[in-house]
Amino acid sequence: MTQHDPQVLVKMAEQIVKNIPDRAHVAKATSEHIKSFWAPSMITTLIDFSHKHPEEVSADLRGVIAQLAQ
Known about the structure:
Layout: H1 6-18, H2 26-37, H3 40-52, H4 59-68
Helix pairs in contact: 1-3, 2-4
């Protein structure tokens, strides 16, 4: 597995969250975007980091993480 800096991944994911215009469906739209463009190892790193450090991710990103973990 390639090593990914989890804090960089959080920053990238937070930027995607901020750029989703449909705020009512931000978790679904962001998770679909991430699934389409990120390597599975990146997603795993993001999920693992967010579970270990939930205080370092926004509420919106926690919603995305829940969608990704399904």
